[in-house]
Design goal:
By secondary structure, the chain is mainly alpha-helical. 72% of the residues lie in helices and 2% in strands. The protein has a two-stranded antiparallel ribbon. Strand 1 and strand 2 form a beta hairpin. It contains 12 helices and 2 strands; from the N terminus they run H-H-H-H-H-H-H-H-E-E-H-H-H-H. It is globular and about 60 Å long.
C-alpha cells in the first residue's frame, strides 16, 4: 500500500518558505536585464497562484459576516499597518528634503489606489490586498451559493479578473485570487491531496501547466496576463503539482530545511517586513560601495535584506511573547 502524504497544519510551510525565498530573490535581481527562460516561466507563473491556493485549503464555510470579520483581521489589518508605515517613513524623508509634492505623487496616490508594480508603493502587499478580496468573495460565494454555483462563480471571477486586470485596488487580481482560493477549498473538500491519481491525470496536469507557461503568461503584480484561458488553469495545474511534490519533500523532516519552514510558517510577517524594507529602506547606501548589478552587489543585497527581514520578524515574535507574558502575569481585570 502506498503511503499517503502527511496532512497537518504545517504541511505547506516548506512550500511557502521556498516561494518566499524565490520572491525576495526575484525582487533583488529584477534590476538586472534578463529574459526569463522556459524553466523560470514554468516556476514563476505558478508560485503566487500556489500561495493563493494553499490559503484557501484551510478556509471553512461560515456566515458572510464572520468571514468578512476574519478577512479584515487576518489580511486587511496588516495591509493597512504596512501602508501606514510606508507612508509615514516616506513623509519624513520627503519633509526633510522639502519635497512633499513628490510624497503625494510617489507615495500617497499610489498607496490609496493600491497600485503595484512599476510606480507602486505597496511592494509585496499587493498580494495581501488581492488575497483579502479573494477571501471576501469566497465567503460570499459559500454563504449564498451551492457547490455548482460556487464553481461557476469562481470561474467567472477568473474570467472577469483577466478582463479587469488594469483596474486599481487590486480588483482584477482579487477576482483571480478568488478562483485559486476556491480551488484550494475544493481540493480540501474532495481530499484530492490524499488520493492516488492515475498516470493519465498526472500527464494531463503537466500538459496544461506547460501549455499555460509556453503559450500564456501570468504576472499579476505587473497587471500582465497573456492567453488567460490557458495561463490561469495552467497555473492551477502547476500549483497542484507543486503542492503534491512538496508534501512528499515535507515528509522527509530534514532539520536542514527547518529555517525554510520557519519562513513559510511566518510568511505573512515576512511579506509585511519585506514590503517595508523594499520600499523605504535606504539600500542605496550599499550601492555606494558595490555596483548594484554586479554579482557581489546582488549577493550582498539578497543576504542583507534576508538578514534584516528575519531579524525584524524575530523581534516582532519576541515582542508578542513578552506582551502575552505580561498579560498572563497581570491576570484578568477586576
Amino acid at each position: 500500500m502506498k503511503r499517503k502524504p502527511k496532512m497537518s497544519l504545517g504541511m505547506f510551510d516548506l512550500l511557502k518558505g521556498v516561494i518566499i525565498l524565490y520572491m525576495i530573490f526575484r525582487h533583488t535581481t529584477c534590476y538586472v536585464d534578463q529574459t526569463d527562460t522556459l524553466i523560470e516561466k514554468l516556476l514563476f507563473t505558478m508560485f503566487l497562484p500556489t500561495l493563493f491556493t494553499v490559503s484557501g485549503y484551510w478556509l471553512k464555510k461560515r456566515k458572510l459576516k464572520d468571514g468578512l470579520k476574519s478577512s479584515i483581521q487576518s489580511l486587511l489589518k496588516p495591509y493597512l499597518i504596512v501602508c501606514a508605515v510606508i507612508l509615514a517613513v516616506g513623509a519624513v524623508h520627503r519633509a526633510l528634503i522639502n519635497d512633499m509634492r513628490d510624497w503625494v505623487d510617489s507615495f500617497l496616490v499610489p498607496i490609496i489606489l493600491g497600485t503595484s508594480g512599476e510606480g507602486g508603493r505597496i511592494g509585496a502587499m499587493w498580494f495581501v490586498l488581492a488575497l483579502f478580496i479573494g477571501w471576501c468573495l469566497f465567503f460570499l460565494a459559500v454563504d449564498l451559493l451551492g457547490e455548482r454555483g460556487q464553481i461557476i462563480a469562481a470561474c467567472a471571477g477568473a474570467l472577469a479578473g483577466a478582463l479587469l486586470l488594469p483596474l486599481p485596488f487590486q480588483i482584477g487580481q482579487g477576482l483571480i485570487a478568488f478562483f485559486y482560493v476556491y480551488a484550494g477549498y475544493f481540493i480540501k473538500r474532495k481530499k484530492l491531496l490524499e488520493r492516488q491519481l492515475g498516470p493519465w491525470v498526472w500527464a494531463l496536469l503537466i500538459a496544461v501547466w506547460a501549455a499555460g507557461a509556453c503559450f500564456g503568461g501570468l504576472n499579476l503584480a505587473l497587471y500582465k496576463i497573456e492567453n488567460g484561458f490557458l495561463s490561469i488553469p495552467g497555473a492551477l495545474s502547476g500549483a497542484f503539482l507543486l503542492i503534491r511534490l512538496f508534501l512528499c519533500l515535507n515528509a522527509l523532516e530534514w532539520r536542514a530545511l527547518e529555517p525554510i519552514r520557519w519562513l513559510g510558517r511566518y510568511s505573512l510577517w515576512i511579506l509585511c517586513v519585506h514590503a517595508v524594507e523594499d520600499e523605504v529602506f535606504p539600500w542605496k547606501i550599499l550601492f555606494w560601495f558595490v555596483p548594484r548589478e554586479s554579482v557581489l552587489g546582488l549577493g550582498l543585497h539578497f543576504v542583507l535584506r534576508m538578514a534584516l527581514v528575519v531579524a525584524m520578524c524575530h523581534g516582532m515574535l519576541w515582542l508578542r511573547r513578552r506582551t502575552a507574558e505580561r498579560k498572563r502575569a497581570v491576570g484578568p481585570g477586576i
